[in-house]
Amino acid sequence: METVVIVIHLMVVLALVLVVLLQRSEGGALGMGGGGGGGGGLMSSRGTANVLTRATAILAVAFFATSLTLSLIASNEDSPASILDAAPAATSDAPGAPGADTDTGAGGGGILDSLRQQSQPSGPQVPAAQ
């Protein structure tokens, strides 16, 4: 679900940027106005401006809707509120063991020691090359 909304959001963002760049500004920029005054074209410059203005408004509403949807999806995910809540307490007092303080020999028990224990592999290990 989240991936679908992200893809839609990115398409809306690209379309919104394109529509904004196509609009005629005071300086002319990338606007597709042409400057020809006759009625021979498909749309007059005024009609093109109205279509681009409406397209910008519709895409802006779609952008806000997808942004709010993504924020609601992110807030409903089951994840720990803090890294401190996810780390288990370390209870190793052996000198030289991970989590033990090498200077005093006393067990560390701090959050950094417990995170270090989590990051070490727990499965079968290959001996180091000599």
From TrEMBL:
Protein name listed in UniProt: Protein-export membrane protein SecG
Main subcellular location of this protein, as a coarse class: membrane
Sequence ranges of Low complexity compositional bias: 85-104
GO molecular function, one term: protein-transporting ATPase activity
Subcellular location: Cell membrane
Domain of life per record: Bacteria
Membrane disposition: Multi-pass membrane protein
Family: Belongs to the SecG family.
Function: Involved in protein export. Participates in an early event of protein translocation.
One Gene Ontology biological process: protein transport by the Sec complex
Classification via InterPro entries: SecG
Region ranges (Disordered): 84-130
Pfam families named in the record: SecG
Regions crossing the membrane: 51-74
Keyword field: Cell membrane, Membrane, Protein transport, Translocation, Transmembrane, Transmembrane helix, Transport
GO cellular component terms, semicolon-separated: plasma membrane
